[in-house]
Design brief:
single chain, 672 residues, alpha/beta, seven-stranded mixed beta sheet, six-stranded parallel beta sheet, 38% helix, binds thiamine diphosphate
């Protein structure tokens, strides 16, 4: 036997052993869902028929190459080297599980290892992979990341965005499609008009292939080629592996929609049976040896499952742990220089200082690089810090946010721009379902320290798609930190604070204030996130406001002072974390008379949250008269005159304050 032949023989025997182990593992996981009562609860997506793809693909890669897979990811986790006991314990929702029972079968993650993790949102892993690849390249590593999707996922917007970004930036990514012929319960053929899914890559201009996903050498060799291509700086590839789906879409799938012929065809392509036949026919193992290998895997799985089932459940005391990092006391940063500048210049100065002081910081988005942003927030930054750290992206918000997450998981500090806050909605998944969960799911082993800058608010001519105030949508999400800058000074300091924070932060700027000037203290460090600021003390009534409405509130308070009313104004600055002490101080100072003012529409606005919290926190029934002034529940028109009819302007604030100060404290429900 030649050395090459010997190596291949060892590879095939090893592959057989691992595929057999994964099959036994999946059979056991399935069995645990079928006991009465079930020992494993919730949906479990098993990879029977697809096991050879992770095994052979990872045999072609280096130990430090990374993996992002789907909810059907047990095989990828096991082949990546994750402790099988931790995987089974996670499926069983035990404290010893990979994620302590926080992830379950479909969302296991270990981004501090090569197994970045599963993803339960179809297609979402692909844009995250873009960020992992950006980090690898920026940090000077020639690692590659493999991201897997099902065939159905090829129709997801996120996947198209990821491929567009990966192609444009020549990112070292291997897109792997595990084509099992079914998009959940619908045949793949009904959803595609091309005979090979791999052809989708042609539109993006990178190489692709369709490979038999039951052929151990073809899988390994095609992945090796794609990895070489990526490591040589030539960009991504797409490999479609055709695989049989031996079982249902998930553990309880009755498969009533599937023909017997289709099932039989799948069984005829079982990779375990094929590999077994190959070992015997090539003389690599005899029938007895094969049986012994199979029995060994069953035994391993039995042992680790017994251990997992006997393991402890997570303590209820820990259920709230690791949503965000513990706040650390930060001293006020040293002031380097005080300058008068416009709000947008202050944003630019903050970005400059972040890039200068944090070598891990990168800054990107649509038009951010060479043009310096449509509002010039990033002007000269590419010139000063180079195109590797400040760059343009395709018009692909999911790719921007997903890649920011991926890069943040791998050691970078991405500060990305979403040009208008309204555009976040096309990509919200990456903040809400992805970035915000990382610290919690990994129990603090990983976090997603990314910053998203965006701007919002109503200005003359801004239509209903360019004027929404979105802060309450974001503040609703545990794990996301949200700031709004209402002055040039805060445009600088809040952005610096966000960039120094270990959790995902969204800093919302006020477009209408971009050209307003103020004194800005440029600092050597950053303040901690989460403090409100009393902009004006007052005793008769306290206004709580933030962002675009804050200047109106301040102007109103000034005019009210001329009329003899002492009105205080608290600028909340951060909605999460919320400065409860500052709010309590204001309530005390103003004898419980509080008006909340925001530009966002009333219903579900953050004002509603504050009203609820103030009442919840008033258990001893102290004097409390809280009202809210917001825009009514109307899409914002473009015409200035119509806008003015809706906004919480200075005049409306003054009128409401007069009304509050003259009214007895009564309770009534008002229309939004
Ligand atoms: C964004 C999103 N849409 C829909 C779903 C529900 N869903 C879960 S798995 C799945 C099927 C995906 O099919 P495919 O990509 O072919 O992968 P397979 O399950 O066959 O591995 C669907 C529709 C989801 N989890 N995420």
């Amino acid at each position: 036997m030649s050395a090459a032949h010997g190596a291949n023989a060892a590879y095939l025997v090893d592959a057989f052993r691992t595929v057999a182990f994964i099959r036994a593992f999946e059979a056991k996981a399935l069995a645990l869902t079928q006991t009465k009562p079930p020992l494993v609860k919730g949906s479990v997506h098993l990879c029977a028929g697809q096991e050879l793809v992770p095994v052979a693909a990872l045999a072609a890669l280096r130990d430090d190459d990374q993996v992002i897979c789907t909810y059907r990811g047990h095989g990828w986790a096991l082949a990546s080297g994750v402790d099988p006991y931790a995987v089974m314990a996670e499926i069983c929702h035990r404290a010893d599980g990979l994620n302590g029972g926080r992830a379950g079968s479909a969302y296991m993650m270990a981004p501090d290892t090569r197994f970045i993790g599963e993803n339960s949102i179809v297609g979402a892993g692909t844009t995250i992979a873009c960020g992992v690849a950006i980090a690898n390249r920026t940090l000077g590593s020639d690692r590659v990341v493999i991201v897997t999707i099902g065939d159905g996922a090829l129709n997801q917007g996120a996947v198209h965005e990821a491929m567009a970004m990966a192609a444009a930036m020549k990112l070292p990514i291997l897109f792997v499609v595990e084509n099992n012929g079914w998009s959940e319960l619908t045949p793949t053929s009904a959803m595609f008009t091309i005979d090979r899914l791999a052809h989708r890559a042609r539109g993006y201009g990178f190489p692709s292939a369709t490979i038999d996903g039951t052929d151990a050498t073809a899988i390994r060799d095609s992945i090796a080629m794609a990895a070489d291509h990526a490591r040589a700086g030539k960009g991504p590839s797409l490999i479609e592996f055709t695989v049989p789906r031996l079982w249902g879409h998930y553990h309880a799938d009755m498969q009533h929609y599937r023909s017997k012929d289709d099932q039989a065809e799948a069984e005829a392509r079982d990779p375990l049976a094929r590999l077994r036949a190959r070992l015997v026919s090539d003389g690599l193992a005899d029938a007895q040896e094969v049986e012994r290998l199979l029995a060994e895997q069953d035994e391993r799985v039995e042992t680790l499952t017994r251990r997992a089932l006997n393991g402890p459940a997570g303590s209820p005391d820990t259920a709230r742990d690791h949503v965000v990092a513990q706040a650390s006391a930060t001293l006020a940063p040293a002031v380097r220089e005080t300058k008068t500048m416009t709000y947008i210049q202050a944003v630019n100065a903050a970005l400059h200082d972040i890039l200068e002081t944090d070598p891990a910081a990168i800054c990107y988005g649509e038009d951010v690089g060479s043009a310096g942003g449509i509002f010039q927030a990033s002007r000269y930054l590419q010139r000063d810090f180079g195109p590797d750290r400040v760059f343009d992206t395709p018009i692909a918000e999911n790719a921007i946010l997903g890649s920011a997450l991926g890069a943040s998981l791998c050691g970078l500090k991405p500060v990305v721009e979403i040009m208008w806050s309204d555009f976040i909605f096309v990509a919200l998944d990456q903040l809400v379902n992805q970035a915000a969960n990382i610290r919690y799911i990994t129990r603090g082993r990983s976090s997603a320290p990314l910053v998203v800058r965006t701007q919002q608010g109503v200005t003359p001519g801004s239509c209903a798609q360019h004027s929404r105030s979105i802060e309450a949508f974001l503040a609703h999400v545990p794990g996301l930190k949200v700031a709004l800058a209402a002055s040039a000074s805060d445009a600088y300091s809040l952005l610096r604070a966000a960039a120094a924070d270990p959790d995902p932060c969204v800093v919302i700027e006020a477009r209408g204030l971009y050209q307003t000037k103020g004194e800005v203290q440029l600092t050597d460090g950053a303040e901690a996130v989460g403090s409100a600021r009393l902009r004006r003390p007052g005793r008769d009534l306290g206004i709580i406001s933030w962002g675009t409405a804050l200047p109106e509130a301040l102007a109103a308070a000034e005019e009210l002072a001329d009329a003899g009313h002492d009105v205080g104004v608290l600028d909340l600055r951060w909605l999460n974390p919320l400065d409860a002490d500052a709010i309590a101080d204001l309530v005390r100072q103003c004898d419980g008379r509080i008006l909340i003012v925001h530009e966002a529409a009333s219903t579900g606005g953050f004002g509603a949250e504050l009203v609820a919290r103030l009442h919840d926190g008033n258990a001893d029934g102290g004097a409390l008269h809280v009202e809210r002034l917001a825009s009514p529940d109307v899409p914002m028109p473009a015409a200035y005159e119509l806008q003015q009819a809706l906004l919480p302007t200075k005049q409306r604030i003054i009128e409401r304050v007069h009304a509050m100060l003259s009214r007895k404290r009564t309770v009534q429900l008002v229309e939004a």
